[in-house]
Every structure is written in structure tokens, then in C-alpha cells.
Design goal:
The protein has 401 residues and is an alpha/beta fold. 41% of the residues lie in helices and 13% in strands. Strands 1, 2, 3, 4, 5, 6, 7, 8, 9 and 10 form a ten-stranded mixed sheet that branches. A hairpin with a 4-residue loop joins strand 4 and strand 5. The N and C termini lie close together (8 Å). The C terminus is likely disordered.
């Protein structure tokens, strides 16, 4: 993590320890919302809970049927989490268009920062200008900074105002209309959040939501994207109405989809299937990692913020490698090709470095790599275990902040 980002995070983490318990969300007993104080219109629920086996399997069967019957070569694009590193992924998509080799995807999925880019990736190259604008033209200025520090009033270090404004600027009724058109063609846009109350992954079929139209759909669409990108402890969670098993309207607490799932490739119910179902010739899964896969050896400063930040980075990379290995095993059993693009390990990148200049540089690196045909590599098993060489750890005199 760059020093300025690490120092800011360290200072704010220290402040948050003193302010713990100050910022809270007042929730109704049992999460039940009083219907008399809520505007709620029952519609088709676009959310698919990971624990709802029937709906998960139905979604998997539907997507599988669409892929197997597609007139074009079936392709899936999965966009991972990664905070500010999403600028690299946005650059890769833009450069991929420039290369003339970017396919049309039957399914696009997004987690965390990948959720913010997924609608544009889903709608195709005509929306590359929006990708560039969101990630490389300074709109993240002030996202993490003293002015947005909100530890006193919210259960997160920072106010999500800048992020919310960004989502509202780009998620318009026209965007939903275009997504609805593509959904009716059989294509699917899926966004992942984590329901903290249920401790489970929630997959949102955003095409179902887009087809509903109206202000309610626009508001919920924005809320889902904001929730998927809300890193717990950094940004406050997003409260989304839902219906419980007793038919009551309840308030659900949703946060970053990456808490459980670093990216959504093959649906969970299919990953453990032992009976191979051969995919059509040429079927490909592209996983765009908004971050780095390999270990980065360095000395960690012996402070609480530095240890927490380093532990989070280590945990995230390990979870990512595990998910890649499981998806690779499925792909090999079923005849899919798995391609991966990620921030090169030699580049300094931090998921919390939202400095506009740094993000613009990361965007350009991704764009140039993809435009030159260098971004994507086919992943083949067995997946090697990345090892950080001791020589790469740097001298003890320059510890990690």
C-alpha cells in the first residue's frame, strides 16, 4: 500500500478505536419494518439467496441452457472486487475494445468494485466512455479523506456520499432500459452482495430489476451497487428491504459482496458437481481480477493498523486463489477455457488508494496491456502456489506502513 494511503488509514483506524460505538444504525426489533411508515410495492424479487437451493439451481439451469443454446461462442465475464484497483479492470475492458478482440458476453457478473463496472461491461463497448469517466477522470476525489471521515455518526470510517453520488450519476433510467433490452435477449447481469444478517451471499439478477422500471427499480438498482461496493468498516452498510419467511417486510443489512465471494464465476451449486456436463466447444470464462494474485513479500510495521491492513490483504489474496482453483477444476472437468487478467505483481497497487492520479495511471496500464493483447492468460492446472522470494522482501529499514 502506498505510504500516503497507509498513513491515512492508520490515523483513521486509530481514531475509530476511540470512537467505537459512536456511529450506529438504529434498527427495528427483529429487523421488522412497520409497513405504515414504508413505501413498498411488491414485485418480482431479483435477489437469489445462496441458501435458497431451489432458486440457485434454477438460475444455474437457466444460465446453462442459455449458454448451451447460444448462437455465438458462449462467454462469461466475472469482475472481482478490489476497490481503487477497479481502475485497472476498467482500463482492460477499454483496451480490449481497442484490440478488436473483445467478445460479447452472455453473462456478466460483478462483485464490489466489479459491481460498479459490470453494467457498463454488460452493455458493451459503446459504454467505455462511462467506464473511463467513473474510474479515470477524478470522480473518486475525496472518497477517502479527512473531509469524508464519519466515524462519529456512521458505522464506517468514511461517509459514502462521494460513492453514492457516483452511482447516482451513472445509474439512470436509460441505463436500466438498455439492460432490460439485453435481459430480454437472454443475457444476464448478476451482482453480488453479502447479507450480514443471514451471513450469506446474495446474487441479484439486475435484468429482472431493470425490467420492472420506475423510480423504485432505479433506487434499488443503485442501492445494490452501493452495497456491493461498501467495504465493511470503511463504508457504512446499506439497508435494503426484504421479505422474511413469515411474509413480513424486514430490513436487511448488505455489504461488500467480496466478504464471502471474491468473484462470481461458476454458480456454487455447479462447482461441486461430480458428473461432468461438457460445455459447447469454445466456451470461455474470463475472470478480471481488480488486484494482484501473487504474494508480495515485505516487512510489516508492528502497529495495529499496519497489521490489520496486511492481514486483510493476505486473507483476500488467499481467498481469491482458492476461488480460482475451484473454478479451474470445474472448467477442466467440463471443457471450459478459463482466462485471467490481473494487476501485474510488480506494480504498486492498493485497493484503498483512490487518488485520481494513481487511478488514472492504473487505468492506462490496464488499457495498454489489453490493447496490446497482453492482459489475458489462460489458466491451466494444477494451479501453482505463488511464493514471495525472501530477496523481494526489502530491507528492514523500510518497513510497511
Amino acid at each position: 500500500m502506498p505510504r500516503k494511503s497507509a498513513r491515512l488509514l492508520a490515523a483513521l483506524l486509530t481514531a475509530s478505536l476511540w470512537l467505537a460505538g459512536c456511529g450506529t444504525i438504529d434498527r427495528p426489533d427483529g429487523g421488522v419494518i412497520r409497513l405504515t411508515t414504508q413505501t413498498w410495492r411488491p414485485t418480482e424479487d431479483p435477489r437469489i439467496r445462496a441458501g435458497d437451493t431451489t432458486r440457485v439451481e434454477a438460475l444455474a439451469a437457466e444460465i446453462g441452457g442459455r449458454l448451451w443454446s447460444a448462437s455465438e461462442t458462449p462467454t462469461i465475464l466475472a469482475l472481482s472486487g478490489g476497490g481503487a484497483n477497479g481502475a485497472y479492470g476498467a482500463g482492460v475492458l477499454t483496451g480490449w475494445t481497442e484490440s478488436g478482440t473483445r467478445p460479447a458476453f452472455q453473462v456478466v457478473t460483478g462483485v464490489s468494485t466489479g459491481a460498479l463496472a459490470a453494467p457498463f461491461a454488460f452493455l458493451g463497448p459503446e459504454w467505455d466512455d462511462e467506464l473511463r469517466g467513473a474510474y479515470a477522470e477524478g470522480r473518486t476525489r475525496g472518497l477517502l479523506g479527512w473531509r469524508s471521515f464519519a466515524g462519529l455518526v456512521t458505522p464506517g470510517l468514511f461517509d459514502s456520499g462521494v460513492l453514492k453520488d457516483l452511482v447516482e450519476e451513472y445509474v439512470t433510467p436509460d441505463l436500466l432500459r438498455q439492460i432490460a433490452i439485453e435481459h430480454d435477449k437472454g443475457r444476464r447481469l448478476l451482482i453480488v452482495t453479502t447479507n450480514l444478517d443471514a451471513q450469506e451471499t446474495v446474487i441479484w439478477d439486475m435484468g429482472v430489476l431493470a425490467r420492472q422500471g420506475g423510480d423504485q427499480a432505479v433506487k434499488l438498482f443503485r442501492a445494490v451497487l452501493l452495497a456491493s461496493a461498501s467495504i465493511p468498516g470503511v463504508f457504512p452498510p446499506v439497508m435494503i428491504p426484504g421479505v422474511d419467511g413469515q411474509g413480513r417486510l424486514v430490513e436487511e443489512m448488505h455489504v461488500d459482496g467480496g466478504v464471502i465471494t471474491p468473484f462470481l464465476g461458476i454458480p456454487e451449486s455447479l462447482l461441486t458437481a461430480t458428473t461432468p456436463t461438457r460445455a459447447p466447444e469454445g466456451t470461455s470464462l474470463y475472470v478480471l481480477i481488480n488486484g494482484q494474485i501473487g504474494r508480495t513479500g515485505r516487512i510489516t510495521r508492528g502497529t495495529l493498523p499496519a497489521i490489520l491492513a496486511r492481514a486483510y490483504d493476505t486473507m483476500s489474496k488467499a481467498n481469491l486463489r482458492t476461488s480460482l482453483a475451484v473454478n479451474l477444476a470445474f472448467a477442466e472437468r467440463n471443457g471450459l477455457s478459463l482466462y485471467v487478467a490481473a494487476v501485474p505483481d510488480g506494480i504498486e497497487a492498493s485497493s484503498l488508494d483512490f487518488d485520481p492520479v494513481s487511478m488514472a495511471d492504473l487505468f492506462e496500464r490496464g488499457r495498454a496491456s489489453a490493447a496490446g493483447g497482453l492482459a489475458w492468460s489462460e489458466l491451466e492446472g494444477p494451479m501453482p502456489e505463488p511464493v514471495a522470494a525472501l530477496d523481494d522482501m526489502g530491507p528492514p529499514a523500510t518497513p510497511q506502513d
